[in-house]
Amino acid sequence: MRRIALVPALTAATIVATAGAAYASQYVAYEGPGFSGRSVVIDACGTSNIPYHGSYRWYGDGQSGRMYNQPNAQGVAHFTLPSDRNAEQRTPVGWQSIFIVC
């Protein structure tokens, strides 16, 4: 009897965890201005260094992004990207790292 009750509970927990992981804010960094060149998607919680600074797109889907002018989210946050709105900039940016708040 315990096995039967445990399997549905584990299945439900897996579905909830998978559904939660499907939606996360994303910072897309582009190598060139106007969203050109190579790009990288940053969507991991916590600190990430930004490899490209030509332009960016932010897709706010539940988590905010704190932007830093230094690597490894050191110093004071320069700007916070919203958790519930998208943003973009077609020209170069100076941000060196991001801390996605999860």
UniProtKB/TrEMBL annotation:
Residues 1-24 form the signal peptide. The keyword RNA-binding does not apply. The keyword Signal applies. Coiled coil: none annotated. GO terms for biological process: defense response; negative regulation of growth. Keywords: Signal. This is MiAMP1 protein. It comes from Microbispora cellulosiformans.
